[in-house]
Amino acid sequence: MRYENIVTGQFKSRPNRFIAMVEIDGKIEKCHVKNTGRCRELLLPDAEIYLEKSGNPQRKTAYDLIGVKKGELLINMDSQAPNKAVKEWLEEEAYFKHVTFIKPECKYGNSRIDFYLETEEGRKIFIEVKGVTLEEEGIARFPDAPTERGIKHIQELQQAVAEGYEAYILFVIQMKEIRQFEPNDRTHQAFGDALREAKKHGVSILAYDCVVTRDSMRLDNPVKVQI
Fold first, then answer.
1. Which of 99, 188, 164, 84 is nearest to 131 (CA)?
2. In this predicted structure, what is the pLDDT of residue 155?
3. What per-residue confidence (pLDDT) applies to 1?
4. Residue 77 near residue 42, CB atoms below 8 Å
5. In degrees to the nearest 10, what's the CA dihedral of 89, 70, 33, 141?
6. Buried b / exposed e across 86-98, counting CB within 10 Å, b at 16+?
7. Could you give the CA distance from residue 129 to residue 192 in angstroms, rounded to a whole number?
8. pLDDT band at 40, cuts 50/70/90?
9. 224: which strand partners?
10. pLDDT at residue 38, as a whole number
């Protein structure tokens, strides 16, 4: 997936989870943050950030914050990017072969699961995508804040397996240089417990890193999952 009209700036502050104050070419601008997570380890004062300039003059904010440098590591922090990148990855049949049908945002139970697939062989597959931006010494973790919604999705996928579907949780790590993925039990033990329980009942857990540039992101290599 690609962006247009990318500019570089410096992060200054985050008055609320939707808005950040940034400096672009010496001028302070209000921008939209495309990630409602905490991102405290990323959005540090004067961090180098990447923004997409909107082409809509009616918008209240002219820019969307989509990426940040953490040391030398470039991290995409756009919460919409993982699903877009996964859709391209599925269409390329990089993992699932002979796909005949892809439906994003498919209703199942009391949730909307990110993707539903069918294949020539008759496989019926649900995939829930989770974007990951939290990194500590080469280990990626999710979530960075408690997520009851995330637990609900895991439980729905477990039920789907019981009803004969295949089910996957795909953690999209929005950066490179990651050697392992783990659930963030320190932040939300219940999410990690739900993930482990789902695996016991046949839900597959995948993690992939991404090639991230100023104006693009694509899934790249599988990452070891340690749960």
1. 84
2. 95
3. 95
4. yes
5. 60
6. bbebbeeeebbee
7. 16
8. confident
9. 180
10. 80
For the record, the structure tokens of 122 come out as 């008759």
* Helix %, strand %, coil % of the chain (to 5): 15, 50, 35
Alpha-carbon gap, residue 162 to 47, rounded angstroms: 46
* Predicted pLDDT at 28: 96
Whole-angstrom distance, CA of residue 150 vs CA of residue 163: 20
pTM of the full predicted structure? Answer: 0.95
CA distance 26 to 89: 38
Residue 110's pLDDT is 87
- SS3 state at 123: coil
Burial string for 142-179 (b: 16+ CB within 10 Å, else e) reads: bbbeebeebbebbbbbbbbbeeebbbbbbbbbbbeebe
Helix/strand/coil for 96 = coil
For 105, what's the count of Cα atoms within 13 Å in the CB-facing half-sphere?
A: 2
Tell me: the pLDDT tens digits for 190-224? 999 999 999 999 999 999 999 999 999 999 999 99
Tokens of 196: 């482990």
Q: Give the Å distances, CA to CA, from 85 to 92, 104, 171, 204, 225.
A: 11, 12, 12, 19, 20
Tokens standing for 62?
Answer: 């002219």
